[in-house]
Design goal:
The protein has 288 residues and is an alpha+beta fold. The chain has 2 domains: 91 residues, 434 Repressor (Amino-terminal Domain) (Orthogonal Bundle), CATH 1.10.260.40; 180 residues, Beta-Lactamase. A 6-stranded antiparallel beta sheet has the order 3-4-5-1-2-6, with helices on both faces. Strand 3 and strand 4 form a beta hairpin. The C terminus is likely disordered. This is Helix-turn-helix protein. It comes from Kribbella caucasensis. One of its GO terms (molecular function) is DNA binding.
Amino acid sequence: MEYGELSDFLRKRREALQPEDVGMARGRRRRTPGLRREEVAVLASMSADYYSRLEGGRGPQPSAPMLAAIARALRLTVDERDYLFVLAQHGIPPRVTRLDHVNPGILRILDRLDDTPALVLNRLHETLAQTSAHIAFEGDHSQYDGAERSGIYRWFTGNRGHLNEDAWDNHARVLVSLLRSVVAADGPKSRAGALAKTLRELSPEFAELWEAHEVGHEHRTTKRFQHPVVGDLELQCEVMEDREQQQTMLVFTAIPGTESAEKLRLLAVLGSQQVGAGSGRSPGTDLR
């Protein structure tokens, strides 16, 4: 592993970022140019000691998931992320992994939505990043592992979140339609194909919808939820597509002046308490 070049690359990318670039408060008595090492560690969800040893050229070879987390924390472009992987002797990630690297521009938007539930999903509806308000709204998605990382898998195996029951049928059809499109593009032997095969075996509901061959089924922009803390919510779901990365950002807002808007403000406070000082996002983990 090229410790010297890796250390230098990490240090220079860290120093090129300011706290405001990643949604952090600058605070007083800041002498370090750019971010501090411990701030990068917070953003990457790792210990400050581990990151410090890695940047100092003293740590063991980082795993691919660790590198992916650091790449997101440092707001690396896809090309910079590939270079980081090469320096750590992992080689350039395959395309399916590259598409789990969130565009730095999207991350900057999330950093400015700390009081708004928002998240970034890949093509299998695996959460790549979410705001603290979304963590308060729907829980920390980074806790999921394996097949449960997919929101499609969770939905058809019983985890339906807080969405009102009257919307379940439409939402299920949207999810199956989305997965069918991915399987058609990637093939039956892809990860999407494996997910569809698993769900056909586990869920009669999924199997029935899959046989209907629906594609392009559109989601409803107005969604109603029953939240366990704040109760009924009526939210607008805005969708932003990153076609190059094949990712989707969902942003949930309420009409100003409504009861739902007041409840969202309460959830934003709860979210900031859960995440604590530092980043307003919870990064997901890379697909493997």
